[in-house]
Amino acid sequence: MKSDIDKNIPMFRELSPELAKIAKAELNENPKQTPEDVRILKEWILKQTHLKARTDDQWLVAILRGCKFSLERVKAKLDLYYTLRTTAPEVTMCLKPTEPNFLAFLRLGTCVILPKSKTGLHPRVILIRVGRYNPEEDSIANVMCILYYLVQILVMEDDTASVLGTKIVVDYEGCTLNHLIEANPSLLRKITAVSQDSLPLRLKGSHHLNVPSGIEVIFKLVSTFLNEKAKQRLKIHKSPEELFEHIPKDVIPIEYGGDGGTVAEIIEYWAGKIIEYKSWMEDEENFGTDESRRLGKAAFSDELGDQVNVTLLFTAAQYVSSINKVSVKVKMTVRPLSTTLQEKAKKEINENPRRVESDVLALKTWLRQEPHLHAVNPSDQWLVAFLRGSKFSLERCKEKLDMYYTLRAIVPEFFSNRDPLSSRIQGILKLGAFLPLRNCKDTDSSRICILRIGVFNPTEYNLSDLIKVAFMITEIMMLEDDNFTVSGEEVIIDMRNVGVNVLSQWTPALAKKVITCFEKALPVRLKSNHILNTPTGFEAAYTILKAFLGEKLKKRIRVLNQNYEALYKEIPKRVLPEEYGGEGENIQELTDYWVAKVESYRDWFLREDTERSDETKRPDKPKTTSSLFGVEGSFRQLEVD
User: Fold this and answer.
1) Can you tell me the distance from the alpha carbon of 270 to that of 114, in angstroms, rounded to the nearest whole number?
2) Phi, psi (5° rounding) for residue 448?
3) 289: which strand partners?
4) What DSSP letter does each residue of 525-550 carry, written as one string?
5) Segment Disordered: which positions (predicted)?
6) In sequence order, which residues have a C-beta less than 8 Å from that of residue 71 and are 6 or more positions away?
7) DSSP code string of 88-131
8) Which of 60, 270, 330, 506: CA 20 to 30 A from 555?
9) DSSP secondary structure letters along 392-455
10) Worst-scoring range by mean pLDDT, 258-262, 333-337, 340-344, 596-600?
């Protein structure tokens, strides 16, 4: 845990002479420098506002060894290790060592660490038996979760593992098609991030036994997430005897022709260790990251995994299916909702957790069948946001998706040139023109956003620039913010310092495009709109706005001007910024947070720039600016679903 740094010399085991020699040669370990490295890491951890990490000396030394004593690599690994607690809980937290189901799954024998060799210094060996669990009831993520916690004990107790690393033996006996294709690219990437990138151990080799027919396609998928060194160390064996060329016989269990004891005995040894480390594991539940307090780019992007190799996954599933002449089902995963939000989602937007997977798959199938949308390859989480915004009506969802990607193509002023590092985007971001607040009224409440129209100079920027940035932030909330996608948003529009030069940019044509985006494309549920500090000339702009709104949205707009007390009745002071009479973060703190957040999505925005409709390939009549928005200045009212 974070605490005042111990002024005493760090306490960790001294290596044996043989291991010390290897550590110096291979890991750059300098015993005289190690205490100082540990101290520097502790100080660094304390300064990370988003990070709550373990600071035991032996633990930090293990991570130093896993990174060959590069302090910058250690910081990155520590950050990733604890970030995955928050961003990949389906892998790192799906089983808790303090609960009975952890020991029950451990005793299935899906994952154990084999005994240390008595014949010399060798990497420790991890045995994974894929076919030992029922994929209808459990997941490969459970196996990784077992490994995640066993490794903690291993590096705390065994210097051999932290210096020499590990080898993995994967036995596919009993493995079925359901085992092979249950994990989608997002889950595979998270598993790889946990095992390859975050654990404080060096992988010295992976060995695969009893490999079923068709597995080479799955290996191809997994290898896309592996580094080159790991790819080179992957070996497939025809018999257990071939293992003896790479692993000492006294380590290998009796069931595999070795002398290392039975698998059952090894399982019980580790079950005892989990019980012995109960207080350690209880502490583990308190560690992780608060991503809302992070400054800068996230250590792990949940989104990337969903975008990578989706086509390859389907190909792999179909290929294995054709070999074995059975049908397979590709499993989807999305971020689980909290209990309170799940109840609200069920009640208000018809969300049924058992149907989400099939609905997402139905949308992906539909997208592949639409010739004008072939460039579109959305993630599961993105599609779930659209489903929630459509109250899980598949037809309404398809309409919104079609319109959204169409608008990306024909409204470039909103959806093109969205590099967060461009001077124009940076300028708007740093003004804090659109700021979602980081605290909600309650755990299941809507997200509150402040739109500050008067902060930009109309001679330097256009109103469409502000709208573009607001939409960029909205899309990030669609990916990250469950309160936003389930409960909707409440918007405070602050018109302080808005002059005629700004109001004159609010033309009927611009208003129509904005309202079309909100009503017909973006999966946004606007719950209320509070307009503050209205300027002279506001009524004319308001009239233009109302001309395109349906009755439902008109009723949700409240013009408060300077009646802040009326605002406080709807939105409590404890969540509002101090500039609005509240007790929450101030505007500059919110601005800094959203600048860093949008910058962290740079790769995503650049990649998304090509994902739009190709109207030349639309089966029906192509949609154009004229067909959607008519003659400029038209006041034809848009409908609200």
Assistant:
1) 10
2) -100, 130
3) 51
4) -EEEEEEES--TTHHHHHHHHHHT--
5) 610-641
6) 37, 40, 41
7) -HHHHSSS-TTSHHHHHHHTTTSEEEPPPPSSS---EEEEEEGG
8) 506
9) T-HHHHHHHHHHHHHHHHH-HHHHS---TTSHHHHHHHHHT-EEE-S--SSTTPPEEEEEEGGG
10) 333-337
Q: What are phi and psi of 74, to 5 degrees?
A: -65, -45
> Looking at this protein, which amino acid is placed at residue 239?
S
Retrieve residue 542's tokens: 């308001």
DSSP assignment of 459-500 equals: TT--HHHHHHHHHHHHHHHHHH-HHHHHH-EEEEEE-TT--H
Is residue 21's pLDDT more than 60? yes
Residues 289, 595, 419, 610: is their CA dihedral positive or negative?
positive
pLDDT > 70: percent of the chain: 85
Tell me: the pLDDT tens digits for 498-543?
A: 888 888 888 888 888 988 998 899 999 989 999 999 887 777 767 7
Q: Which residues contact 362 (CB under 8 A, 6 or more apart)?
A: 394
Is residue 361 pLDDT above 60, yes or no? yes
The residue type of 535 is P
Structure tokens at 269: 């040894």
Residues facing residue 576 across a β-bridge: none
How far is the C-alpha of 92 from the C-alpha of 85, rounded, in Å? Answer: 6
For 501, half-sphere exposure in the C-beta direction (CA atoms, 13 angstrom radius) is 10
Does this model's pTM top 0.70? Answer: no
- Neighbouring residues of 268: CB distance < 8 A, sequence distance ≥ 6: none
Residue 168 pairs in a beta bridge with: 126, 206
CB-based contacts of 76, cutoff 8 Å, min separation 6: 299
Strand partners, 127: 112, 169
Burial of 369 (0-12, 13-18, 19+ CB in 10 A): exposed
3-state secondary structure of 235: strand
Q: Quote the strand ranges of 157-202, DSSP E.
A: 166-171
3-state SS assignment for residue 632: coil
- Tell me if 277 sits within 8 A of 153, measured CB to CB: yes
Q: How many CB atoms lie within 10 A of CB 182?
A: 20
Q: What share of the chain is helix, strand, coil (3-state, %, to 5)?
A: 55, 10, 35
pLDDT range class, residue 636, cuts 50, 70, 90: very low
Rounded (5°) CA angle 189-190-193: 85
How far is Cα 179 from Cα 202, in angstroms, rounded to an integer? 26
Under the phi-then-psi rule, with left for phi > 0, alpha for psi from -120 to 50, and beta for the rest, what region is 257? left
Hey, is 206 helix, strand or coil? strand
CA distance 255 to 267: 13
SS3 351: coil
Residue with tokens 């100082």: 36
Residue whose tokens read 């990578």: 308
In terms of C-beta density within 10 A (0-12 exposed, 13-18 middle, 19 or more buried), how is residue 523 classed?
Answer: buried
SS3 171: strand
